[in-house]
């Protein structure tokens, strides 16, 4: 699962790599290291690793780079490596990265690449909660959900259909939403399995398994607050990852799984210790990347601000600011290439969305 409000622009690079594999990979049957039955797939473990290695630097760049604080980076890596050692792939070369992004986000690439955003770390209240997030993402890797999803969608030709948007020539924006959503579209069963595996891994390290459900509850409350501040109703809540189970259901599922665990010894939560670890971590953006405040975006360094209409929700990324509103209406604020000339209409139709048939451009 991605604990995220948005993945704005990583779809094109990942999509291209996977599309090539659609023609190059041979079907194989490999045992799922997390213990489920074997499945026939079009992506081998070595190909998963290659994809992760290729896309890792691109993804980090799209999310504004790694967080600047070496202590924060070392802390997350230490925690991640400890949990990975409790997984079914302890000998895999795992990479844990803290992204410099205020989006509440966590996700994984195949091959052992796991990411959490600084925004997510500010929402967690204990080390056990952060461990639950990381353990869940480790579960997606050990269960080989990327390979499984890839194999299923190629057979139905949905994979190439989704990737068509990402390779159609749209620059810096709209179509990447579609490809990114595909990247995130784990099935409900895969989400539930990652929850079970995450609980397994954190319990093996004596973390309180209830922390996973308490963090999901915080996510639900945070999302509800953002909906209220932006003027959205709960029924109209925006989610790029609509195929994921509702947060409330995942809280119940995770809590039920936690009750079945019987760890030996005292459970670890480490609330005060965690808060000391992240003391000074900026919440809600910074002066270099700008701040989102309700329906207002402010960039102190570039000295500008703007508001979006009621019902829209703002997502801030290093390369653009996007807002999504009712009916999937989108506002995208980015920069033109230096030296670009002509009218706004010609720029939109001939440069920004070249190759697409834009209508009602004014």
Describe the structure.
This protein has two domains: 11-277, no CATH class; 285-352, no CATH class. Helix 3 (70-84) packs across helix 5. It contains 13 helices and twelve strands. With 362 residues, the protein is α+β, with helices and mostly antiparallel strands. The strands form four sheets. The protein has a four-stranded antiparallel β-sheet, with no helix packed on it. A three-stranded mixed β-sheet has the order 3-5-4. The chain has a three-stranded antiparallel β-sheet with strand order 10-11-12. Residues 2-14, 16-28, 155-183 and 235-244 have low confidence and may be disordered. The chain has helices spanning 11-24, 45-62, 70-84, 118-123, 127-142, 145-156, 158-166, 174-184, 188-204, 210-230, 247-259, 271-277, 344-352; strands at 28-30, 39-41, 95-99, 106-109, 113-117, 285-286, 290-293, 296-299, 304-307, 313-317, 320-324, 330-333.
Characteristic terms for this protein:
362 residues; 13 helices
Short recap of the structure:
This protein is an alpha+beta fold. The chain folds into 2 domains: 11-277, no CATH class; 285-352, no CATH class. It has helices at 11-24, 45-62, 70-84, 118-123, 127-142, 145-156, 158-166, 174-184, 188-204, 210-230, 247-259, 271-277, 344-352; strands spanning 28-30, 39-41, 95-99, 106-109, 113-117, 285-286, 290-293, 296-299, 304-307, 313-317, 320-324, 330-333.
